[in-house]
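Protein in question reproduced for absentees:

***
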Amino acid sequence: MTIFRQWRYSVLMVVAVVAVIFEGFVEGSTDASSCAAILCPTNTTCDNGTCKLICESGYADCNGQFNDGCEANLLEGDVTNCGKCGRNCAEPKSYEFVNCVGGKCTYTDKCTAIKCGTYPNADTFCTKGKCGAKCHPGYANCDGILEIGKNGCEVNLNKDVKNCGKCKHKCPKPQGYGAGPATCRNGVCQ
């Protein structure tokens, strides 16, 4: 054999080996022994003839798309892959937020994010995602309207002759000469 033929034969052998390796890299093989012929990229391993990503702790390749890497954060925020791939958090109640924290589904009342504001003569609160007001002692919301900063527990039950002691309890006008106007003291008509 001439040198040219030997050289050509060697080149053809190298090309054939590269083609086999490239084919194994792109398509993979279900034959476990084929991993010897596969060159997987950095941060991957060969498993049964297929290159698989090696993910950092807490992350995974849940969508099986090699090109976007270990896209799923299993510990924080991903409610469709919470703790492991495909673990969906249950739908939250209408007044809740759902989140994945430490690989576990957590449900939080929307009140944690709501700023209810203030109402006159009242303490505000939030329950099941809705703001409300609790009147200070001696005050009441007799018109049933809550307007932040304007209308809340607008009636002083200790002094209001139209709402003395409770809403819509009107003090009668005193009878007799010189009796004067109706009064409400400490929630009692005088």
Q: What stands out?
A: The radius of gyration is 38 Å.
